[in-house]
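Quick start: what a row looks like.
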Amino acid sequence: MRSWWQDSPGDDADIVAEVEATGPTTFWVHESWHPRWRAYVDGTEVPVRRVTPDFPAVDVGPGKHTIELRFERPLWHGSCGWCGRALRCSRGS
C-alpha cells in the first residue's frame, strides 16, 4: 500500500492511497470523520463509512485500487479571507 496526503483546496484529492486487496476489505483513514468527506475508488464515488472511534472508512473489493478522499469545503471557505481584507480596507485599517 502506498498513500499520501496533499493540500488541495481545489478538485484534487486530499488523501490518496494505492491499495491491493486479496478480498473484500475496509480501509480506514486516521483522520477525523466529517460528513463532508467524499470518497472515490478508481474514479467512482463510493459511500464513506464512519468507524470507531471516529474515522472515515471505504470498502473495496479484491484487486488493485486507487482510493481518493476529498473534503468538500463550503463555497464560502475560500472567500473568508477576502471578506476580512475588504472589511479592513473599508474601515481604513
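That is the whole record. The mean pLDDT is 80. Strands lie at 2-5, 15-21, 25-28, 37-41, 44-46, 49-51, 55-60, 63-71.
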